[in-house]
Write a structure and sequence with these properties.
Blueprint: H1 2-17, H2 21-30, H3 35-38, H4 58-71, E1 79-84, E2 87-94, H5 98-108, E3 115-122, H6 131-168, H7 171-177, H8 181-206, H9 210-230, H10 232-247, E4 255-258, E5 261-268, E6 272-277, E7 282-286, H11 287-292, E8 295-297, E9 303-313, H12 318-331, E10 342-348, E11 352-362, H13 368-385, H14 444-455
Parallel strand pairs: 2-3
Antiparallel strand pairs: 1-2, 4-5, 4-8, 5-6, 6-7, 9-11, 10-11
């Protein structure tokens, strides 16, 4: 808010310094001293030669002429005029600040005036019968005469605004026209704003306050600019909400990852996207961040691939281990035959060869985490039963460069088969590993999301629409 007030003050000061006509006129209406700052300066008396000899009684004639002119102008009734050697001295008070320059201008235009010494001041007294009280009385009388017209203008403005609210209240129509409820609400709000502004403009124009109307519109523009800077993040958030509601990047209960945040979608509101994390916690992400983020949707494609790495002994046949692992995965009932399971030798480590196994499942029938867990167990058991070693990191220590290597292979002979025979690779893992465990999807978080959407009355404000195509 501090930024808003700074911008507003700078804009107002700049308009005043430039002599904006709307502010000048407003100052004249209120009769404030600030209007003198914007009033145009009085033109200087035309330069003329000053006569060396003065006519008899010329000062008296000049004074009489000026007094006669001022006598016809009520605002100059309190002005005293003295003339000597063609120099006019004005003293006394006038009702308004601009009248000071006006009196000097009138006096300077009289023939024979050399210069004008202006000592006039504005009458700021509040005594009964003073010029200020008289001016205020006149304004009140003018206002009373204007009251019937003001009443008609207010009535007309109220009718226009009521029509706007009635049109904006046709929510069913706007929801049929607009792609979603959020955009329908924006259309209704825009209609209300246009009719309110139109009613005010017409009412001010009827009472003859066109200049004041310009000042109001100018001030509204300055305030709008200041609000735009101060509420930049909020406006960006609403625009992002509108774009997300049109694009529909995900559905309710979709398992998504937005930047570094992962969870299931509860709903999309006009300000934030609400997720339920895999720990069961609510997570609100501003829509401006969601709109610019990288979104990974795990639910959109029912087929999903899991992978895991398994390291076999470097002395064993890595290709045979890979083939056995792929064959084991293919025999698991929850692994899809198309696309087929796959094995890749990706790295030779210090003490093992790393094999990566990949397989596909259908998420509609199989839980991702359960299937991956059972697949790891099945491949591990199959490799161990076939005699493949799954070693941990091995470090060999030498205390002297000439020391012979220790015969570790003679210490634990028969503990395992160093080089399994090719026939042992054909051992079936499905006969050894229990695969009867239930792998059907049973996501507690998904059930929580469905329950919350069913019981939350704010469901009607959800911008996710099943009837609209997703991006």
């Amino acid at each position: 808010m501090k930024r808003f007030w700074i911008v507003f003050a700078l804009a107002a000061v700049s308009l005043l310094n430039m002599g904006h006509p709307a502010f000048a006129q407003l100052g004249q209406i209120l009769g404030s001293p600030a209007s003198s700052a914007t009033a145009s300066p009085s033109p200087a008396a035309p330069e003329q030669a000053i006569s060396e000899v003065q006519d008899n009684n010329s000062d008296a004639r000049i004074a009489a002429r000026i007094r006669g002119i001022f006598a016809e102008l009520p605002e100059f009734s309190g002005v005293k005029v003295e003339v000597g050697q063609g120099v006019v001295s004005l003293s006394g008070t006038v009702p308004n600040q601009p009248d000071i320059a006006r009196a000097e201008n009138i006096a300077a235009r009289v023939t024979g005036v050399v210069t004008v010494n202006n000592d006039l001041a504005r009458d700021i007294s509040v005594k009964v019968g003073s010029s200020t009280i008289d001016s205020l009385t006149q304004k009140l009388q003018a206002l009373l005469k204007l009251l019937p017209l003001i009443g008609v203008a207010i009535l007309l403005a109220a009718i226009i605004i009521a029509i706007g609210y009635a049109i904006a209240g046709l929510t069913g129509l706007w929801r049929r026209i607009a792609p979603n409820s959020f955009l329908a609400e924006l259309i209704a709000s825009a209609i209300r704003f246009v009719f309110i502004l139109s009613g005010l403009i017409i009412a001010l124009d009827m009472v003859g306050a066109g200049t004041l109307m310009g000042a109001v519109l100018g001030g509204a523009g300055v305030i709008g600019i200041a609000l735009g800077f101060a509420m930049r993040d909020t406006i960006e958030n609403y625009v992002a909400s509108l774009m997300l509601s049109l694009r529909q990047p995900f559905r309710p209960n979709d398992w998504v990852e937005i930047d570094t945040y992962e969870g299931r979608v509860i709903r999309l509101t006009s300000r934030a996207t609400i997720l339920m994390t895999l720990d069961g916690n609510h997570l609100r992400i501003p829509n401006a961040q969601v709109f610019k983020a990288v979104i990974l949707n795990f639910t959109r494609n029912p087929q999903r691939r899991f992978q895991f790495d398994m390291g076999v002994d470097s002395d064993d046949d890595a290709l045979a281990a890979r083939n056995l692992g792929v064959e084991t995965l293919a025999q698991l009932p929850f692994v899809l035959g198309d696309p087929k399971a796959e094995g890749r030798i990706i790295q030779v480590g210090d003490s093992n060869v790393l094999v990566r196994f990949l397989a596909w499942i259908d998420q509609r029938d199989t839980d991702f985490n359960k299937s991956q867990s059972l697949a790891i167990v099945a491949v591990k058991v199959a490799l161990e039963k076939a005699g493949f070693g799954l070693p941990e990191p091995i470090y060999r220590l030498r205390f002297d460069p000439r020391t012979m290597p220790l015969p570790f292979e003679n210490i634990a002979q028969g503990s395992r088969t160093a080089n399994p025979s090719p026939d042992s690779h054909k051992v079936s893992a499905s006969a050894e590993v229990v695969t009867t465990e239930d792998v059907r999807p049973a996501d507690e978080v998904a059930d929580m999301v469905e329950a919350e959407r069913a019981n939350d009355p704010g469901e009607s404000k959800d911008l996710l629409d099943h009837s609209r195509p997703v991006e």
